[in-house]
Fold this protein.
Amino acid sequence: MPEKTNSKKKKRYFLVDYENVKTEGFQGIDELEKTDTVIIFYSANADKMTFQLHTQIIETKAKISYFGVETIGQNALDFQLSSYIGYIIGKKNGCECFIVSNDRGFENVCNFWRRNGVRVRIIPEISKSNKENNAKKSEIKAAVKELGLEKADEDFVRELVIEFLKKENVAMPKLKNMINQELCKQFGSERTKTIYAAVKPLIK
């Protein structure tokens, strides 16, 4: 069976581009845990919040911190938020980072960290963090089901891919190679070609 990862709850950091998402980005803040941290980046262009949002922030279990950004030049908030992600990743080994924003310019930041073995994701609202993980598991399950494997083999492949995708600080090319090697050990090189071709597009 695939190697099990540590069951200890991983720390999650939500960096909110408040200038971009406003109140809508906080959907799901009430579902967060004590191990979660929300960091709100705001500027003079967006420094007000509703009473409802204020109440939600007070009542959430997550830790909350605020960063007021001096908007000197275009995209000042984006640059400071991106820099802070690097600070978190450097200090908090094995954490998950989510950029709460609709600004696709942050994809460059996500791609940089993905190449270096760290997954940083962009989500439009906090609630999407769990939905995204569940959607990924469903995609993997469907892809493996299509292979028509025996139940035990199907379970092995599904669990293998899901467990390996939880690993942090492993560059994506290396992670793919590790999964391929584990499949070869279990199924041999010929069967692995078909199995790996089915799951490879989902390893990202």
